[in-house]
Specification:
7% strand, two-stranded antiparallel ribbon, alpha/beta, 10 strands, Rossmann fold, elongated, 3 domains, 504 residues, 19 helices
């Protein structure tokens, strides 16, 4: 009898009388086997590396090992969503587990493969924040979740649904996590079935074997049952103990709770005031992560209302200054700041690359920003709607930090150079015309250069000219005067209306 068979004979003995959440473990494993064998729909296991998803993966892997090989007929995909800004120590652990699963499942003759999915390079955290200048996420503007977590996983699931017609997604969701999550689970439950309908993806179903478990139930299982892919869960336990935080569940819909207060989330997360998780890891010995926490804290500082003008352009990406009025009882308009200033984004990129280099110089193979993201950011800077980067500063910033070059996309730089930008800035200052305005007008002209028909050029030029190119004070003064003029027009119309009602 080989080691693996002996281990699971012992495992069966261990769980024979084990009961968790008022249900024998062996019954739960039998249920997993029955649901698996009931149809031809492939399974997709959502794996985030945390305690709940590790429990699901362990239970399903164990159920497959204990199922006769002749009944292991359909494939199981393990999918892990890497936002590219996950906590580095967690990414390392997840990648090791994915590699182990791919190796061990083949050895055990289990039809299971593990896959990491990523956001598109033009939708990553750094491409949006440093490239487009999006403000750091807040609870009221959490632009990151859908782009970086939901979409990559949803795309994977949709591909399997398109290939097989339907698919079952196994999740570590538990009702105890939140009342809203419990309500969502209940609303999508299929009567008389162990499955639920997916909240947003047609022909996809969810299976939640530990739906009624508590956090204590999860830890009881993880620390007592053997790990089916060898090893144990001690590293996972130490990470939880070090951070004293919960996990970020695999996000497949918008009802999943925010990961902002979680260790198993993004190290850049600014949804919460303080990242106690990373702080806890640093206190437990991961001192090298302190620069990451400092960087994250500055991103959070940029979201503080009274400091926004320091970090952000007064114009939106539309080129217009915009206002809002959230108080129906007041006529006072509130200015809406735009994207981060290009200069601020340049400073942050240099700092990020410096942190990455210092970490690597200390023998840690950590990537904080991918070369593909740098390519995407460079394109955003060159074509920025408010501050086009004619100086093409990104390659220079990279070479200043790393003292080397990477292969940049050919012809990616615009038609202009840094001397052109300097000349226009000097002329703009001399004639009191914003250099950026002239830059955008020239870009419009070049966009139709060489075409036999220059249809639409006047509309494009007019669109550029209609943007707000004055200073914020000048724009506010203009809008105030316009508002006064409009109020007099309204008063005049009201008087004319009242006069017309007077009998002759």
């Amino acid at each position: 009898m080989n080691k693996k068979k002996y281990q699971y004979k012992t495992y069966l003995e261990q769980i024979k009388n084990a009961v968790i959440a008022d249900k024998p473990i062996i019954d739960l494993i039998n249920e997993i086997q029955n649901v698996y064998s009931n149809d031809e729909r492939p399974w997709i296991i959502g794996f985030s590396g945390g305690k709940d998803s590790t429990t699901i993966l362990s239970l399903i892997y164990s159920a497959m090992l204990l199922l006769p090989a002749s009944k292991r007929k359909k494939h199981i995909y393990v999918v892990s969503s890497d936002t590219l800004v996950e906590t580095p120590v967690v990414v390392d652990m997840i990648n090791r587990i994915l590699d182990t699963i791919n190796h061990q499942a083949q050895q055990d003759d289990i039809p299971m493969t593990a896959h990491a999915v990523y956001p598109k390079m033009d939708q990553t955290f750094w491409t949006n924040l440093l490239g487009r200048g999006y403000p750091a996420p807040k609870q009221t503007f959490r632009w990151c979740t859908e782009r970086m977590k939901i979409n990559p996983v949803s795309t994977f699931i949709k591909e399997k649904v398109a290939e097989f017609g339907e698919a079952v997604v196994a999740l570590g969701s538990r009702r105890e996590e939140s009342s809203s999550r419990a309500q969502v689970i209940a609303n999508h439950k299929i009567e008389g079935s162990s499955l639920s309908r997916h909240t947003s993806l047609p022909n996809a179903y969810t299976f939640m074997p530990i739906e009624y478990w508590t956090a204590d139930d999860v830890w009881e299982y993880l620390m007592s049952a053997p790990c089916p892919w060898e090893g144990d869960n001690q590293e996972l336990f130490e990470l939880y103990k070090g951070s004293n935080q919960g996990e970020c569940p695999l996000v497949i819909d918008k009802s999943t709770p925010s990961c902002g207060n979680s260790r198993f989330g993004c190290w850049t997360c600014t949804v919460v005031t303080k990242d106690k998780a990373i702080h806890g890891l640093i206190e437990s010995g991961e001192k090298w992560m302190q620069p990451l926490l400092d960087f994250r804290n500055e991103l959070y500082e940029s979201t503080i209302p009274e400091k926004k003008n320091k970090y952000r352009n007064f114009k939106r990406r539309t080129g217009k200054v915009e206002y809002t009025n959230n108080d129906p009882d007041s006529n006072e308009l509130k200015h809406i700041p735009g994207p981060y200033w290009l200069k601020q984004r340049q400073e942050w990129l240099k700092r990020l690359l410096t942190i990455e280099k210092n970490i690597r110089d200390n023998n840690r193979d950590i990537t904080l920003i991918k070369p593909e993201e740098l390519q995407a950011i460079r394109q955003q800077w060159l074509r920025d709607p408010n501050e086009p980067d004619w100086a093409d500063s990104l390659p220079r910033i990279y070479s200043e930090v790393y003292d080397t070059e990477i292969e940049w996309i050919e012809n990616d730089a615009g038609a202009f150079t840094e001397p052109d930008a300097i000349l226009l800035n000097d002329l703009g200052a001399k004639y009191n015309i914003p250099a950026e305005l002239i830059m955008k007008l020239i870009e419009v002209e070049l966009s139709v250069s060489g075409l036999s028909k220059r249809k639409g050029i006047l509309q494009k030029l007019e669109s550029v000219l209609k943007k707000d190119w004055e200073t914020l004070d000048e724009i506010n003064t203009r809008n105030t005067e316009s508002s006064k003029h409009d109020s007099w027009k309204e008063k005049l119309i009201q008087l004319q209306s009242e006069y017309s009602e007077i009998p002759a």
